[in-house]
């Protein structure tokens, strides 16, 4: 386990405060131990459980991003009959209320015409804002754990890379690093990663959210 989430080393240096990116280790595995579950277990730089997604089956399309203690942060739901495999994110546990809500964000695959294209775009505030420039976009190869999340002006705000044990040994693609630049909402970025895992693994197939 020490290779999955190594403890952060303490650095000695000047007393001047330096702001570093938030570094997480993402494990494509549910925190539930029994076989057949699907999800994510995410550790912070100190090796503590920061986020998790527990799902009994990949067939269950609605996902809930939780903090390490199990509190629901964001509910992620696929958009019915979306032509670009679109997902919406809602605050808290959306399944516990029947009242309509405005999404925190709407995320979709950029193009259905380019096979193997992992690019996605995110609109804050939901589908009504999709006539303008996206607030975030993701480019690169999520499948190969080499992609970047960019802001509306193109600046890199977060990056996914393969997890290294040392300078020469890489862990499997089920374990990867997520670096989030200062000032970004970490739970929001993690929600983007969870949706990317859904829209990049299979072709478009509209489904109902059970």
From TrEMBL:
Pfam families: LOR (PF04525). InterPro entries: LOR, LOR_sf, Tubby-like_C. Signal peptide: none annotated. PANTHER family: EXPRESSED PROTEIN, PTHR31087. Belongs to the LOR family. This is Protein LURP-one-related 5-like. It comes from Tetracentron sinense (Spur-leaf).
